[in-house]
Structure formats: C-alpha cells, structure tokens
Amino acid sequence: MEKKQIPFLAMGGLYQQDDLDAAISVIKEVCDGRGSFFPLPEENEFQQLFAAHEGARKAVAVNSCGTALDCCMMALGIGDGDEVITTPFSFVCTAGTAVARGARVVFADIHHETLNLDPERVREKITERTKAIIPVHFAGLSCDIDAFDAISKEAGIPVIYDAAHAVGAKHNNMPIGGKGKASCYSFQGNKNMTCLGEGGAVTTDDDQFAEKVRQLKTFGYVYGEKLRIVSIGFNYRMTKVQLAVGITQIKKIDFVNSLKRERMQRLNELLRDVDEIILPPGIDENHACHLYVIRINTDVLAVKADLFAAHLKNNYGIQTAKHYPPIWEWEIFATLGYDGSDCPVAAKVASQVLSLPVFPNTTYEDLEYIAYSIKQTVYELRK
Ligand SMILES: Cc1ncc(COP(=O)(O)O)c(C=O)c1O
User: Which of the four pLDDT bands, split at 50, 70 and 90, describes residue 101?
Assistant: First the structure.
C-alpha cells in the first residue's frame, strides 16, 4: 500500500456550523447591545440537558474535569491525613486534586482486561483514613459500578467517578451519571464533545452535593434573598459562549460516539486475527468510544509499545499516542515516593499500550491502512 500520513488529531469530536452559530449568537447579542456575558441562562439549559443525557438528577457545569474533581474533593471535605484510593493508569489529574487538597493518594491495581480500577484490589487498600475512591471509566468503558456500589455501601466511603472519557457511556444499558456520589466529566479539546476546547461537569443524584459543588464553583455563594458566602470557593465557571456550544455539542454526542464506535468496531474486525495485538474490550453500545487503545501482547511479541509506535510512525506515517504512562512515573509523584511495586498489572499494561488515531471523520480506507500497517509492523518486528 502507498505510504500515508495519519496524524493523531488534537480534536476528538465534531465541530460544525451549529457550534459556530451558537458561539456567534452569544457574541452578536453582546455586540448589538442586546445581551451580556452574564447572567447565564445557557448555564441552566446546558446543565439540564447534560444531566438528562447522563441519567443524573443534577449537573453542575464547571470549566474542566480537573476543577470538577477539585470541587468534589472540597465538597467531601478531603484534606490532611485523609487517603483517597485511585488508579495509577490514568491522566495525572485523577490523582492530583486529592494531593492538592492535602490527602495521600493510594494506588490500587487495575483489571488486566478492562484496564479499569479493580474493585478487589481497592478493597485491600481501604483503611480507616480512606475518604474517597476515584475509579476512571478508562477510554470510555464503564468500570464495575456494581462492585464499587457494594464497596461504598459496606465501607461507607463515597465513590467519585472520573468520567473524563465517558460522556454517553452506559453500564448495563443505563447512563452512568447518577452513579456513586458524583461523576466528573471533561469537555477538553481532545474529548468526544468539547466546549471550545475546555469545560467540565459534575453530575450527581444528591441535590445537596450538587448545591455544594455549585457554591464552590462560584466563590462559595449561596443564592437567595440575601447573598451569602458560606465557604471558600473559586471561579470555576464556563463562559456563556462555551455553554452555548455545550448545548449544540451534547445534542450530537450520541452521533459522534456512534461514528467512533463504528470505526473502532471495524478496526477490531480487521485486527482480530493478530495474536500479537490485544484489542480494546467492550466496544459496544455501552462504550463511549473516546480512545481506541491496543496493547502489544508482549507474551507473544517481546517489543515495548514505544518501539512499536516509533516503527509505525517512521515506516508507515501513523501517529499514535500513549494513554497512559503510570501516574507514579510523573516527576512529582516519583518525588513523593510513589512507585509501581503495588500495581504490577498497571506497570505491565503501561508498557504495552498505544492509542490509534480513530476520529469521527477517519475514512474506512485509512482504517484499512492502519490495520495493514500494524500487521506489517508486527511482521517486521518479529524478525
Ligand atoms: C482520565 C482523565 N481525568 C481528568 C482529566 C482532566 O480533564 P480536564 O483537562 O478537563 O481537566 C483528563 C484529561 O484528559 C483525563 O483523561
């Protein structure tokens, strides 16, 4: 096949005329002297649409998943002396907000197939200091919510889901946004939906928790006859222009996810006979299809993913990404004394993974080329 160049795009979803119109209409109203950037009717509309889509009673829009997680840590009163259990196989932010609030992060290992936090490994890490558990729906695949519900009930520990990859994900055909104490979403530019490059939301079925998060994202204000500030909060709000685009984006997220799902399923078909590659699990209607992460089956092909990725890039022009190096490898966590000794599955998996470029507009011809290049790379590295 003729060599192509296939980049790993910095844009996971679809931006179209409806998004442009939504953004421009807000700015135009301001230019015409008819509107302002505040107050925010779009905030309520977006929050209602998002909560309904994710199956939660309430959604609170914030400006990132990081600030969503931070609001949850603050709302739970996480601080010095507390422990928060999470996965090391995620973006650093999953663990960072707990550390920023003074807690000690405790890494529990992941499941070798789903790559999600393993509930059995979490059980082993619970102490009287454990104040929260943060599982991640990795790549868009829902984690074992039933098991985490059971742990939460037995141990009385709240679960905050990092749903950065998971807008539209389902668990047993049900949306996930009302599960646990809360879920934290990202609308950063790489995600399947984005609000002009940034954004986030907290969803929850707990009205009081939602109100606490709402206060924290706006300086601690309680709205009412008399404005009161009852806690120290921040300005973690999305802008009105972002919220207007959030409305157009949430309306088409199922379509975007389905475009990615069809392409991921096609790649699964094309690669299914390659023993050297472990395919991503669970790419079905429940999967939010944010990332398509393959693993080199290092028991069959003794090659690290980094070398495989370099070969793909240099010889076939296919750019990949790594989701993720384990969090303990980031300098700050290494300095704090973390390592992978307790998480052998995550350590092994992190050396095996690479994310392939699968986007809503990826052509089927490109998918054929990607599969062909992977098979060639396997063949060439086997020699
Ligand atoms: C699993 C996970 N959690 C949290 C974040 C942080 O999201 P944001 O950039 O919206 O703060 C990301 C970002 O990619 C992520 O992948």
Answer: very high
